[in-house]
Amino acid sequence: MLGSDFWPVTLECGDLVLRPISRRDKREWGEVRQRNAHWLAPWEASNPQPGGRLPTFGEMVHSLQQQARQGVALPWLITERRPMLAKPVLVGQLTVSSIVWGSAMMATLGYWVDQRCAGRGIAPTAVALATDHCFGVLGLHRMEINIRPENGPSLRVVEKLGFRAECVRPRYLHINGDWADHSSFALTAEEVPGGLLSRWLREGDQSAKAP
Question: Does residue 121 come out as left (phi exceeding 0), alpha (psi in the -120 to 50 range) or beta?
Fold first, then answer.
């Protein structure tokens, strides 16, 4: 599925909005990232090449938008509507990448959330919203998330959503200056016939009401 039917697309759940990233987001994105530098540093991708650098914001957006046009990525910002503010506030980023069509029909999902918003259910809701779109609208079959074993907050997200732990991938990605092991989690469409978001909202609400 390519063209306007594939991208751009905006997803919403209550006050949470996943919208396409754009060059106009540079200032707000930079402010949130700078404020969260210490929070995000241990999990940040790095360039393994000697003297290599990461892309600038503009380069990153250009690459992500190109991948979206090619049908291999869905680059969203996680935003939240708040009272008295004219537009939703940026609270994180979520990218579905490495989309494979044909006989695989699978993708990989990655995300980060502003530390100020951690623990409020924003990350699991965003992940569930994106996964449902990939399964229900795009027809993908499998979603995979790879997480550093030391990253407790991200591990709790996949645990809450019921992603299966599959394996540990030694030295899988270059993170924060070194090759790092990652735990791999996955979910298939058959495992959430009624949708991941509805299951999360139902079970999350029940958990909040438990003594």
Answer: left
